[in-house]
Amino acid sequence: MKTKFALMALACTMSTAAMATEMNDTVTFSNPTKVTVMTNDSVQKIKIAGKKDDESFRYESIVAIDKTKTSTKIIKKVAEDDAKWVIDLGLGWNAPTNTPNGHGFAVFRSAEIFFGLRYCYTPTGKTQTYSTGLWCDWRSYELPHYAKDYMYKTKNDVVIYRSHVDDGNADYSEVRSHIRIFSLSVPFLFTQKFGKKSKSSFSIGPVVNFNLRGRINNEWKSGDDYYDVSTKGFDYNVVTVDFMGILKSGGIGLYFKYSPMNVLKKKDVTAADGTIIENPQFKALSFGLFF
To answer: Which residue(s) pair with 230 in the sheet?
Structure first.
């Protein structure tokens, strides 16, 4: 009988030791200050320095590695620069400045639309973006309707202002006269966000315009007949530069562009009566919505 009790006691002791060993395989630390893992071909060494409410705490464990069963992988996500293409769309109006005396333009009848692609580069962790791209731009500069003035190209390719009333056509109605310019534009913009997580930003920079096509369009109605005359061949500046600013929040913004260069080339001729006729000189300024 004593032998049986001894065997039972030994079995209980071994079971308790096994449970203790199994429980000791898992060690939990709350909020360790520093964890260091060192691994070579045969062992893995783990060091823990400090834990919650006890910065003097130290723990060290060495674990043998079985190459046939264990493999260690360390995956680290490295922050990268952000580079992407964006689609731009601008809808606005032209308000030319430095217009000839006695002549002006109807701002909200002088429209601008441009769209295209832009490549944007943002260095890692920065709130600044650098971008360039290519836009297609259509601009019109329209005269007010009430005076019945219109733009006319002379045989010397100089643009002048004339009046339907002075020409004896005071009965003309629905009179419109505007210059239209089509350009391929290359923006060079610097953008500053108001914070890393902010959706608001402002952009500034030059926009180089290659003006490829210019037309003068005159439209009027005489009785029941409607006339639309398009004229080309006048001298406009082929390359101009705008200075652009954009204030944007979310997906919508406001833009303005101003060019210190004249839309039409500086050109003049002397008429038979000695009068000097010259291209009207005005500068481009536009503003509107940017998407």
So the answer is: 217
Q: 80: pLDDT confidence band, cut at 50, 70 and 90? A: low
Contact 94, 259 (CB under 8 A): no
Each residue's pLDDT tens digit, 212-221: 999 999 999 9
> Tokens 């295209």 correspond to what residue?
116
**136 with 113: CB under 8 angstroms?**
no
- According to DSSP, the β-strands at 128-142 and 173-193 are antiparallel
Q: What gap in Å lies between CA 204 and CA 249, rounded to an integer?
A: 15
d(CA 194, CA 170): 56
Strands 159-163 and 225-231: unpaired
Q: Measured between alpha carbons, how far is residue 111 from residues 118, 141, 178, 286 in Å? A: 22, 7, 10, 9
Q: What's the pTM value of the predicted model, to 2 decimals?
A: 0.69
Contacts of 99 (CB under 8 A, 6+ apart): 105, 280, 282
Instruction: Return the exposure string of 234-272: e unless at least 16 CB atoms fall within 10 Å of the residue's CB, then b.
Output: bebbeebebebbbebeeeebebbbebeebbbeeeeeeee
Position 100 scores a pLDDT of 85
78 CA to centre of own chain: 25
